[in-house]
Known about the structure:
Layout: H1 6-22, H2 27-44, H3 49-71
Amino acid sequence: MTWETWWLWIAFGVLLLIVEVLAPGFVALGLAIGAFAVGLMLLITGLSLPMALLIWATVSAVAWVAIRRLAGERKGQVKIWETDINE
């Protein structure tokens, strides 16, 4: 099956890296890291589809949280309104 082909996961990771360059936000970067991890695991061993998707989701979530903590928020990225405009 096509999902068992390791190089397709790597190619999907590269595609997600391109998406990250076009629309930065660290989400596609986390998904790309997960796709690379699944591609490398499929290269070494064989995985079932549910296990591959579970690994992709888990590694992607952990990578996104790690990147978000390392990069942090840029100053002015979050706006907290103290007063209502209608008052």
